[in-house]
């Protein structure tokens, strides 16, 4: 609900259609009424289909030139939509865009540690391949030329839909552009258990892209080790304690292996603490 309200508060003065696709679990009647009162088209699917099924459904129903794909756990600024649209206007050959994620203020120490990782990831993404890389293709806020979006079909078993869409867009001749002024807010994991779910899903990405698209991302976009070191050193100088704690968390998550998502198809436990906006 808060996500929709933040979109409706947008300063964008063009036509704006909001479609919400509900995956299996029925909406509370009061929430449904509030969404409809906000001019939202609500589609309630009786059977759970998973994230990719919902993305595919929304794309199939889109009748506008541009599509902004988002989730229910982020908050837009009043200028987010405007900046994404402006990005396409200024770069007409771009077919896929991303906004810039900014963590909400931390409510506990673990969130502060995770924020170090968010900052490191963004520093890497900003400098790697001039900002054209899957680190910046955050799935919680992606925008597309709808004509291209309808070509970006995904198997419903795909877990890392953002990375998949980034490389498929590239494979089909599209281009990607990160819009740093299109800011949106997100809650970071509050617990190690929730962070592990995100981490292990990410560790699965290389194998997944190889399996579905036949692309070895380590060869297509080799990440310079020096860039990783530079990003970490910057955080170490900024906040030594949090940076060292993050390094410990990073080593721990990598030591747990990559098997959590090996046999997962379409459904997995969500990281509940990131839904608390």
Structure description:
There is one protein chain. With 277 residues, the chain is of the alpha/beta class. It has a domain at 64-70 and 79-260. Helix content is 46%, strand content 16%. The chain has twelve helices and seven strands. The chain has a five-stranded mixed sheet. It has a two-stranded parallel ribbon with strand order 1-2. Strand 1, helix 2 (29-37) and strand 2 form a beta-alpha-beta unit.
Give a quick summary of the entry.
This protein has 277 residues and is α/β, with parallel strands linked by helices.
Main beta sheet strand tally, sense and closure: 5 strands, mixed
General form: globular
Beta-sheet strand percentage?
15-25%
Mean pLDDT: 89
Q: N-to-C SSE series?
A: HEHEHEEHEHEHHEHHHHH
Cα-atom Rg, whole angstroms?
18 Å
Oligomer: single chain
Helix content: 40-55%
Side-by-side strand order of the widest sheet: 3-6-5-7-4
Task: Give the total of beta strands.
Answer: 7
């Amino acid at each position: 609900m808060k996500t929709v309200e933040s979109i409706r508060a947008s300063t964008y003065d063009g036509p704006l259609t909001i479609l919400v696709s509900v995956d299996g679990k029925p909406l509370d009647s009061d929430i449904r009424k509030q969404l409809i009162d906000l001019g939202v088209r609500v589609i309630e699917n009786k059977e759970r289909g998973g994230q990719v099924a919902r993305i595919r459904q929304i794309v199939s129903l889109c009748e506008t030139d541009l599509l902004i794909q988002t989730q229910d756990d982020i908050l837009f600024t009043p200028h987010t939509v405007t900046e994404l649209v402006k990005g396409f206007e200024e770069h007409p050959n771009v077919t896929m865009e991303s906004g810039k994620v900014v963590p909400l203020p931390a409510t506990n120490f673990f969130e502060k540690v995770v924020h170090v990782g968010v900052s490191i990831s963004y520093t890497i993404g900003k400098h790697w391949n001039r900002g054209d890389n899957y680190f910046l293709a955050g799935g919680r806020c992606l925008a597309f030329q709808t004509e291209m979006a309808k070509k970006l079909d995904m198997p419903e078993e795909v877990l890392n839909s953002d990375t998949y869409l980034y490389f498929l867009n590239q494979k089909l001749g599209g281009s990607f552009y990160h819009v740093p002024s299109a800011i949106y807010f997100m809650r970071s994991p509050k617990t190690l258990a929730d962070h592990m779910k995100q981490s292990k899903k990410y560790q699965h990405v290389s194998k997944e892209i190889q399996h579905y698209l036949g692309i070895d991302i380590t060869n297509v976009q080799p990440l310079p080790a020096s860039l990783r070191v530079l990003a970490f050193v910057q955080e170490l100088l900024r906040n030594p304690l949090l940076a060292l704690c993050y390094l410990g968390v990073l080593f721990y998550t990598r030591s747990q292996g990559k098997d959590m998502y090996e046999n997962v198809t379409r459904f997995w436990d969500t990281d509940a603490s990131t839904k608390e906006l």
